[in-house]
Design a protein that fits this description.
Blueprint (H helix, E strand, L loop, with lengths): L1 E5 L7 H11 L3 H11 L6 E13 L2 E12 L4 E2 H14 L4 H22 L7 E2 L5 H16 L6 E4 L2 E4 L2 E4 L2 E4 L3 H8 L5 E3 L9 H10 L10 E10 L10 E9 L3 E12 L4 H13 L4 E8 L5 E9 L4 H12 L5 E9 L2 E10 L2 E12 L2 E6 L1 H11 L3 H18 L1
Length: 408
């Protein structure tokens, strides 16, 4: 199964995601009961009314969170909000993954504020996020995800619309997206995009929840069978589009299909050193792969066939590189469709020989079989650092990654 989050038009906020999960089928009574149990952990704030209702947003029927609160809070320490969220998830029957997720969300929000202001995480104070709304969003979404058993599914995210213009808040006026949004997305693989809407479309709470929910960015919908759709409405209204977050749950095909360009040229008077350097230069231009094959051409001449796989966007630069580096007088260009096994990119920190290393690896799954491959550059650098062979280093790293995978 796969869940697609589509914030391409209206961006994302906590209440929009929560509402879309309810529309997708999450038990709203379970969510409301869990949030009400959490209310006692948030001093000086109370929930007068909470419900979910159907609403029309620019012609789209969606679910919207109705929340009325009574509170006298202008700022609150990040550690207080974190404690309230942790206590809330402990008081509700949730899975281990759900509790970890909720804590990670508030940690991300605190960390972003800490980095922006150059202060310790213990010293972070929230202003806009000091409201009980933050607890409602994080706890409510955690309950909904657990109820739908989405923590065990693949979650992918389309480009996230952030709007444009400026935003005014406790620290004054700032260009949009604000620093908190940029800081949150900086350490993720997710992609943001602006548009002509002179509004903040993605909120810090929505952003911190999203980066902890998915690290799988996509430009297009995958090949999938749609099972259910959830529409979550935001509070604002816009003239030109529906302020609605769309999420889609379905069955993904075993293969993903895309289209690539293949560039080929024959060279018969280029040294091995130049070809080796050529591979590095072409990969730096964004090629997906480069292959060089030895052969015999006309008049019995030894030659090398250079073959490059790339996207449309890289064709011009790679053609220039091929001509300038090899002196070739012609390049063949063809288009090819390809099937690829779905994969996801992961980053983990592993302690080896008393040192901590950041490891990037790709994880693939096909017909129930899961495998992963460590990024070779990471493997090479760690091998040199700990003074072990690449083969031995890979074996050590695979064991550590397998332990981490089993614990999740």
């Amino acid at each position: 199964m796969v869940l697609v989050i589509d914030p391409q038009i209206a961006g994302i906020s906590g209440d929009m995601l929560l509402s879309s999960l309810v529309n997708l089928g999450a038990d709203k009574n379970k969510i409301i009961d869990g949030i009400k149990k959490s209310e006692k952990f948030f001093p000086n704030s109370s929930i007068k009314k909470i419900d979910f209702q159907k609403i029309q947003k620019h012609g789209i029927q969606a679910i919207q969170l109705i929340l009325e609160t009574d509170e006298d809070v202008h700022e609150k320490k990040g550690s207080e909000i974190k404690k309230a969220i942790i206590n809330s998830t402990k008081s509700i029957e949730l899975s281990k993954k759900a509790k970890t997720f909720a804590e990670s969300c508030i940690d991300t929000l605190i960390s972003s504020e800490s980095k922006i202001h150059g202060i310790s995480e213990d010293s972070v104070h929230f202003h806009e996020a000091s409201s009980i709304d933050t607890l409602v969003d994080i706890v409510g979404i955690t309950i909904a995800l657990d109820d739908l058993q989405l923590f065990d599914e693949k979650i992918i995210c389309l480009p996230i619309s952030v709007g444009s213009g400026s935003v005014t808040f406790s620290h004054g006026t700032m260009s949009n997206p604000a620093s908190a949004i940029l800081e949150i997305f900086k350490n993720s693989n997710l992609v943001i995009k602006g548009n002509s809407t002179n509004e903040e479309l993605t909120t810090p709470t929505g952003a911190c929840i999203l980066v902890n929910l998915s690290n799988n960015p996509v430009d297009y919908y995958p090949s999938m069978k749609i099972n259910s759709i959830g529409y979550g409405a935001g509070q604002k209204d816009f003239e030109t589009f529906s302020n609605v977050l769309k999420i889609i749950r379905g069955s993904e095909n075993n293969f993903e299909v895309d289209s690539v360009k293949i560039l080929e040229t024959n060279v018969d008077d280029v040294s091995g050193e130049i070809l080796g350097n050529l591979i590095e230069k072409i990969m730096e231009k964004g090629a997906k792969d480069v292959s060089i094959f030895h052969g015999i051409a006309k008049k019995g001449r030894p030659m090398n066939l250079v073959s490059v796989i790339c996207n449309d966007e890289q064709v011009d630069e790679i053609v220039d590189t091929l001509i300038l580096e090899t002196g070739t007088l012609g390049i063949r260009i063809s288009e090819s469709n390809r099937f690829t096994v779905p994969r996801s990119i992961h980053n983990v920190s592993i302690l080896l020989n008393g040192k901590s290393f950041q490891i990037n690896y790709k994880k693939s799954s096909f017909k129930g079989n899961t495998d992963f491959k460590i990024e070779f550059d990471d493997l090479k650098n760690i091998s040199n650092t700990i003074n072990k062979s690449i083969k031995e280093t890979e074996s050590l790293l695979r064991k550590e990654i397998e332990k981490l995978e089993k614990s999740q």
